[in-house]
């Protein structure tokens, strides 16, 4: 059965172009032109991945509202913001709301399709059968790789798919610095440095909310990041 992608885009010409491109790759596409129609559909059936524009019709931040709705329904469903708005405030806001990626409409179609494929590769691992429990323990951190779950001091940490694989890359060798490129390679994603930084900040914040003394994700300026023991 083909993967289903929800495309929320208010520009009819852009919407039709991406519907054709996604279908050509074998995806099933459900397209919506505004937030209310997409919101109603999501309450009934969730897609396998959502691509959402931020400004929808007369709702300047309608896409952000949809992202919040989807995250309330699923913590792991991949969400991509795809927008003409290219600024740090929107990027960071989008990632803080739970999106897995933030792309601007000037990127190539090949680039967009590569990001979608990378997100699906990660989510497919969740559905893959696991004959034994694949768990990593580092101090108070427990990571169940087969189920893609994380806990800190026995409290669940709700990470997105992207955050999960970035964390997994860091804890495989605690104390060793991972460059941004290494995080991308090991997390099976293709993003820019700003997006990596935003993911790290958001992931760190989730741990701090559970434990104000948390300080294990260390930024090594000019080099990358590491998990400190």
Task: Please give the count of helices.
Answer: 8
Rg from alpha-carbon coordinates: 18 Å
Number of strands: 11
pLDDT averaged residue by residue: 86
Helix content: 40-55%
Cross-sheet strand order for the largest sheet = 2-1-3-4-5
Biggest sheet character: 5 strands, parallel
Low-pLDDT segments: none
- Share of residues in strands: 15-25%
For the record, what is the CATH homologous superfamily label of the largest domain?
Answer: Response regulator
SSE series: EHEHEHEHEHEEEEHHHEE
> Which CATH architecture of the largest domain?
3-Layer(aba) Sandwich
Modified residues (4-aspartylphosphate): 53
Keywords: DNA-binding, Phosphoprotein, Transcription, Transcription regulation, Two-component regulatory system
Domain OmpR/PhoB-type: 133-229
Protein name: Proteobacterial dedicated sortase system response regulator
Describe this structure in words.
The chain is built from eight helices and eleven strands. A hairpin with a 2-residue loop joins strand 6 (135-138) and strand 7. The protein is 43% helix and 20% strand.
Please describe the structure with a list of short key phrases separated by commas or semicolons.
single chain; 229 residues; alpha/beta; Rossmann fold; Arc Repressor Mutant, subunit A; 2 domains; five-stranded parallel sheet; 8 helices; 11 strands; 43% helix; globular
What is the element layout, followed by pairings?
Layout: E1 4-8, H1 12-24, E2 28-32, H2 35-44, E3 49-52, H3 62-73, E4 79-83, H4 88-96, E5 101-104, H5 109-127, E6 135-138, E7 141-144, E8 149-152, E9 155-156, H6 161-171, H7 180-186, H8 193-210, E10 217-220, E11 224-227
Parallel strand pairs: 1-2, 1-3, 3-4, 4-5
Antiparallel strand pairs: 6-7, 7-8, 8-9, 10-11
